[in-house]
Specification:
The complex is a heterodimer of chains A (280) and B (154). Chain A has 280 residues and is an alpha+beta fold. Chain A is built from twelve helices and 13 strands. In chain B, helix 2 packs across helix 5. Classes of the chains: A alpha+beta (280), B alpha+beta (154).
Chain lengths: 280, 154
């Protein structure tokens, strides 16, 4: 097996076009898949030496996150805490300290496990993905990208994500079998835009409910333009249960997740930060 | 094959390795540092924890090639029988070791925490140790040992 450690995005894409190589991000999934024989790459392109891919910064109305930012780096970042709180919360519950030090947000999307912890928050926050391939650059909404099969062509590199700074309040909660190291059985990210007493936009994304994380458009229609109160939360719970029921159909986990999601949804709402900066 | 440079426990090495070799295997079989244990081999148990450039990682999930140019600390670099690290002393004092298989990883997670924060809260200790599983003692004595080390370290 060949191993490349390019210094720039352009160099990485050039190698990918000529070598049938696979991109290596943090490796917490890929190294394991190689070890068990599930994936046998001809060559690897290690993205760990490209400084540009590690950047987290605010620019022109967006929060930009490079694909090689680790969960630990995002979880220690003040911008992410304030502007992308759901993602910040997910960074603190994903895996273990060791995994968070290694695993990256780009790798989370590239591997695209149904239970990927980073994706529901990014969906709820309206993130766009910046892709680079031999054909040039493409910026695409994450929810559109997640409807593609295959997700990415072999020579397409995930450069990073950008989250529009719309003043969303957001939260995240997940259900696992234990607090650390447990894969998500169910995760919910919620982002809302508020104008006075009214919720003007509601974005709810679910993870570990079906093949890939997804954003529910229907929930936005049902829940926006209303006042937030106990009745609104009850309505949200009902709707989110309906969505889980529809998404899971007759799967064995459906009766459990359909009920459990109401608690996870409430927890996600509870995890918002208030204006004072502390948890609500 | 490819050449990589590693600084392991303050000693420089240049190694000719297969790109598919895990850091865990390079440490154990090429450098003979058998203190790093392979438990589950899939990032669940933390027995293979080492410190790479100041961060704990599971060496079963890292390719040695990814660590090219890095500084690595294994349990052999933390302390020894004559001069144990405060965390190691505390583990012995409290009785936080039973079979001992998870202990090197536990000690490295604890050491890395205390290197960054000399007086961590109980919650911070729990989070820092959450990626290391122990199947015999339970966690009470382990967490107490880390607390003790944080009190005695200064």
């Amino acid at each position: 097996m060949k191993y490349f450690q390019p210094q720039s995005v352009r160099e990485a894409v050039e190698i990918a076009q000529t070598s049938e190589a696979a991109f290596l991000a943090g490796g917490t999934d890929l190294v394991l898949f190689m070890q068990t024989g599930k994936i046998k790459p001809i060559a690897l392109i290690d993205l760990g030496k490209i400084p540009q891919l590690k950047m987290i910064r605010e620019t022109e109305g967006y929060l930009e996150i490079g694909s090689m930012a680790t969960f630990a780096e995002m979880g220690n970042n003040e911008l992410i805490y304030k502007q992308a709180h759901a993602l910040w919360l997910a960074c603190h519950t994903m895996g273990s300290p060791q995994i968070r030090n290694q695993a990256t947000i780009g790798g989370n999307l590239g591997n695209c496990s149904p239970a990927a912890d980073g994706l529901p928050p990014l969906l709820a926050l309206g993130a766009e993905v910046h892709l680079v391939s031999g054909n040039g650059d493409e910026v695409i909404a994450l929810e559109s990208l997640l409807s593609r099969t295959p997700l990415l062509a072999q020579d397409t590199l995930i450069q990073g994500f950008r989250i529009p700074l719309k003043g969303f309040q957001s939260g995240f909660a997940k259900l696992g079998r234990r607090r650390a190291l447990a894969i998500a059985r169910l995760s919910v990210a919620v982002a809302i835009e508020v104008d006075g007493n009214l919720v003007t936009q509601v974005r709810v994304a679910l993870g570990a409910v079906g093949r890939r994380a997804f954003l529910s458009e229907a929930l936005n229609q049902d829940l926006s333009g209303q006042e937030i109160n106990e009745a609104w939360i009850e309505k949200g719970v009902e709707q989110v249960q309906r969505i889980v029921r529809e998404a899971l159909g007759t799967r064995a986990s459906a009766p459990y997740k359909r009920v459990a999601v109401s608690g996870v949804f409430r927890e996600a709402l509870d995890s918002f930060i208030t204006e004072g900066g502390s948890n609500a | 094959m490819m050449d990589i440079k590693l600084m392991v426990n303050n000693k420089p090495y240049t190694l000719n390795i297969e790109p598919s070799e895990r850091l865990l295997d390079v440490l154990r079989t090429r450098l003979g540092l058998m203190g790093t244990k392979e438990g589950c081999g899939e990032g669940e148990c933390g027995a293979c924890t080492v410190i790479v450039d100041g961060k704990t990682v599971n060496s079963c999930l890292v390719l040695a090639a990814q660590a090219n140019g890095s500084e690595i600390t294994t349990i052999e670099g933390v302390g020894n029988r004559r001069k144990p690290h405060p965390v190691q002393k505390a583990f012995v004092e409290v009785g936080a070791v039973q079979c001992g298989f998870c202990t090197p990883g536990m000690v490295l997670s604890a050491k890395n925490l205390l290197d960054k924060k000399s007086k961590p809260s109980d919650d911070e200790i729990s989070v820092a140790m959450s990626g290391n599983l122990c199947r015999c003692t339970g966690y009470d004595k382990i967490l107490r040992a880390v607390k003790l080390a944080s009190q005695e370290g200064n």
